Amino acid sequence: MLRRLRFWLDMGLYEWRVMWACVALSVGCSVLTACATTPVTVNDYCAIASPILVSRSDVLTDATAKAILAANETGAKLCKWKHK
Length: 84
Description:
It is a single chain. This protein has about 80 residues and is mainly α. It folds into two domains: about 1-40; about 40-84, no CATH class. The protein contains four helices and no strands. The chain has helices at about 1-10, 15-35, 40-50, 60-80. The chain starts with a helix and ends in a 5-residue tail after the last helix.
């Protein structure tokens, strides 16, 4: 036990940086592969998505209006939403 503790205490700054870089790299790879193994399909998207509706009293910026239009057009294409 004391030998292990001595090993960690004797590590220099360079060794600590290398060790933490390896830990960060392994955690990052784990997160990326976890996301890559669960793809979202069109059926999943259509089950939870719905059109974004805007009322006359809403005040939108141009960027917000374009984002809403893009989201609604994507939903119409993928989920066959109809205009009411």
